[in-house]
Sequence to fold (74 residues):
Amino acid sequence: MELVSLLAERLGADDRAPWSWLASVDLNTIRFVIVVTFLATWIGAVTLWKVRRFDERYPAHRTAVEAEPDSASA
Fold:
């Protein structure tokens, strides 16, 4: 985003339609939006996991090593 903004400024196109919008975007706002989107997605995924009880529906499969009895304790 910053690179496109600087390129538009260097080419003198920062006052034209799409470039003026890109040049005016605040990177702090973009960072905030990214963090909020990540947190909302993460909280939504955890909530869905708990509400739909996916951990009970789809238990972890045991591997072949875990399924075999321990020969050292015999």
Notes: The chain is about 70% helix and 0% strand. The mean pLDDT is 78.
